[in-house]
Here is the input.
Amino acid sequence: MAASLRCFLRSGKNAAFALRLRAFHRSAPAAVQVTVRDALNQAMDEELERDERVFLLGEEVAQYDGAYKVSRGLWKKYGDKRIIDTPISEMGFAGIAVGAAMAGLRPICEFMTFNFSMQAIDQVINSAAKTYYMSAGLQPVPIVFRGPNGASAGVAAQHSQCFAAWYAHCPGLKVVSPWNSEDNKGLLKSAIRDDNPVVFLENELMYGVPFEMSEESQSKDFTVPIGKAKIERSGTHVTIVSHSRYVGFCLEAAAVLAKEGIECEVINLRTIRPMDVETIETSVMKTNHLVTVEGGWPQFGIGAEICAKIMEGPAFNYLDAPVTRVTGVDIPMPYAKILEDNSLPQIKDIIFSVKKTLNM
Here is the structure.
């Protein structure tokens, strides 16, 4: 009995000592896995709570929790006056949102897909983008137009367009195209707080993808500045510039190329307009090679604009080879899956273009 008691006490001391050691060596909290959908939901929830002028309107955003569940729970929390279901009339509810912004509110106008924004493009361009200039700076229009952009899966020609170049062409708009969860949360919060109209281009295929979010990005004060790109991977041999979903493709291609001794620097644009040309130029001056990757069509696209900026600026003389563009194919999107896959950039296309640029 005495022996067993001594054994029990000894084991208790050992356990206590082990607990003390564990407490002493406690590591920093691990990053949390958050889907892009939930990151966007957090951003809207925090801004709705922070500023009573913010409200959300669009098709099925309220009682149905959003077509892609991005606004899940917001209607129950904030009610009919701030989370508003609209009729299927993009021109109508976009006009209401622009008018509300002119009257001092801060609307978030959701398009179920940016393909439907073509019905409201007069409101986006002529009413929202130009009013601040036409009023000589007297009338700001603080509005966010947000929703999924670019190709999804199996929705064919009319529902698969990337609008990054369309809207980035227009002075008066800011155009944002985030990739991961931190991008989406931080940039959406910045967009809602901005006094200019912001086109916020999400990606339907990214909504359910989880990413690690740092403890800092969980804060209600966390924002990502509009107009600043991010170097996602450092490298010395070639610069790869992309935005939205294709940043992930570029990182996967870079990992494959690294096994062959090719170190790629991957830049996540995050903002299309204003474009962070300085970050691209600095990288090109280091690597002497440039590849651009996007899901949109090649003519007058984001890659074409980057090519022009590099040619016109100081980085041009540092290039050891022509810039290579990886884009969607210059056709309306086919419906058949195998044709759809061949109409969009794939990882193998990025790898091929990098090797071509490096003359390998």
Remarks:
- The mean pLDDT is 92.
- The chain has twelve helices and 14 strands.
- The CA atoms of residues 145 and 163 lie 12 Å apart.
- The two ends are 78 Å apart (CA to CA).
